[in-house]
Amino acid sequence: MFLIHCPYCGEREQSEFKAGGEAHIVRPKQPTELSDDQWAEYLFMRKNIKGVQFERWVHTHGCRKWFNMVRDTSNDEIKAIYKMGEKPPTKYK
Amino acid sequence: MKNKYSIISLIKNSFSYHENWQKAWGDPDPKKEYDVVIVGGGGHGLATAYYLAKKHDMKNIAVVEKGWIGGGNTGRNTTIIRSNYLWDASAGLYDHALKIWENLSQELNYNVMFSQRGVMNLAHNLQDVRDLKRRTHANRLNGIDAVYLNTEQVKNFCPIINTSPNIRYPVLGGTLQRRAGTARHDAVAWGYARGADEMGVDIIQNCEVKGIKRSGDGVEGIETTKGFIKTKKIGVVAAGHSSVIANMAGLKLPLESKPLQALVSEPVKPIIDTVVMSNAVHAYVSQSDKGELVIGAGTDDYVSYSQKGSHEIVEGTLNAILELYPIFSRMRMLRQWGGIVDICPDASPIISKTPIKGLYFNCGWGTGGFKATPGSGDLFAHTIANDEPHKLNAAFNLNRFVSGDLVDEHGAAAVAH
After folding, report:
1. What is the pTM assigned to this prediction?
2. CB contact under 8 A, A19 and B303
């Protein structure tokens, strides 16, 4: 269990949140033109990084808003949190 | 040659105070080159090496393990073995393993303490009842023993379950697979290690893979903490760390690695002589031969390699356990731990070739890989030796995520994810 600083509500317990997986996977602009390989890549393939990863979280039992998080998956340390639509912090790229 | 374990060897060694037992496996330095290198010295990896040597006549094999053998998920699971999966492909895969389990102690000359005490799955709502009945029928059509029990029969089979209709999620029925049960997880790794070592497999511990060297469309070898090892065939059985190894070869897998927790209580006298699992409220429990209750909790929903999970997951599981078994209300929990499980989108494993020649993956077992250990090793060995899958693992290829031919076992996987 860890504490998460919701960009809208402030610091809350992790149990109020749901993880939404890898962030910045762009929804296909022309779905009808995608090959099976491209669909598989979009739907299923994940980086699943051990280390610093960009992910989406949602404050389910709070404001219900989505936001992005940079987190080290090897020790669960949260590096940065930023709102949807904002540019990811470059120093973790 | 290994000395045979028997009652006679036990008596003989007691005269020397059990101080002169033969070493069960060696501690070799890596050679320059192997025909096959297995990455990951858990049950699945060691079984793969064992069957490569035994059934496919390969001799120059190494197993590299970053820690000690059986120290990952092999030593962290709740040791449940069953084969009551829904789809034909899964039934074939898991029952193949169960059949090997039934004779494994004799085959390995190592007591894996396989105990066919039965596994019961409970239904708590109307949909559960329908799903479990459907699964029972599917199992029986595939030749897997399964019976559906009503509430009274559940109570008779395991009298300590609270079957009162007044609890939050009452027990409406359940399924029972009598051939299912448990085994001693460490013994499985040690037994396969001893058997593989006897046939000349090098088991190299404390040897972490740092990189995979590619050449053209194939592989040339692995970079490890003990130096470069040349090989044309690499079989990766790294469980939660599968994606990490795949990324080294420039490959992406459809996996997410998440913490899965388990806990054991203080040891008590025999009270539950079977395994009871409940998907809907997420509680499963059995009792080890030492007397501890072995309790499986759920996965966290975020990716983590930290081998620890959230407390509320444990709390949720214990709430459910207490409602189903009020008799455990004053039990104290002794230990709690987490393992990192690699979960596939369809809750089925991948035992497959990859687009890279000579690189094979056995992963995605998620929350339930232990039960399949012998079968997984056998089929993965076949896949590596022949460069072709066996018919039992053909459906569990990596390409199913492109073709759409998924094997959805979320219902039978028992741990919600």
Report:
1. 0.96
2. yes
Taking one residue from A and the other from B, the number of pairs with CB-CB distance under 8 angstroms is 72
Q: Exposed, middle or buried by CB within 10 Å (0-12, 13-18, 19+), for A34?
A: middle
Residue where the block lists tokens 């269990």: A1
Q: Which residues contact B165 (CB under 8 A, 6 or more apart)?
A: none
Smallest Cβ distance to A1: which of B252, B311, B404? B311
Please tell me the predicted confidence (pLDDT) of residue B373.
98
Q: CA–CA separation, B357 vs B219, rounded Å?
A: 7
Chain centroid to CA B124: how far? Answer: 26
Whether the ipTM is more than 0.85: the answer is yes
Give B26-70 pLDDT, tens digit per residue.
Answer: 999 999 999 999 999 999 999 999 999 999 999 899 999 999 999
B12 φ, ψ to 5°? -60, -45
Residue B376 contacts residue B101 (beta carbons within 8 Å): no
Q: Which of B241, B301, B402 sits opposite A18 (nearest CB)?
A: B301
In this model, does residue B414 exceed pLDDT 90? no
Going along chain A from its start, the domains and CATH numbers come out as 3-27+34-92 (3.30.2270.10)
Q: How far apart are CA B294 and CA B111, in angstroms?
A: 20
B-chain residues near A52 (CB < 8 A): none
Confirm if B58 and B36 have CB atoms less than 8 A apart: yes
Q: CB distance A36–B402 less than 8 Å?
A: yes
Query: Which of B256, B306, B402 lies at the smallest CB-CB distance from A40?
Result: B402
Question: How far is the CA of B386 from the CAs of B8, B36, B51, in angstroms?
Answer: 41, 12, 13
CA quadruple A57, A61, A62, A64: dihedral, nearest 10: 50
Distance from CA of B267 to the nearest CA of A (A): 28
Segment holding B356, helix H or strand E: none
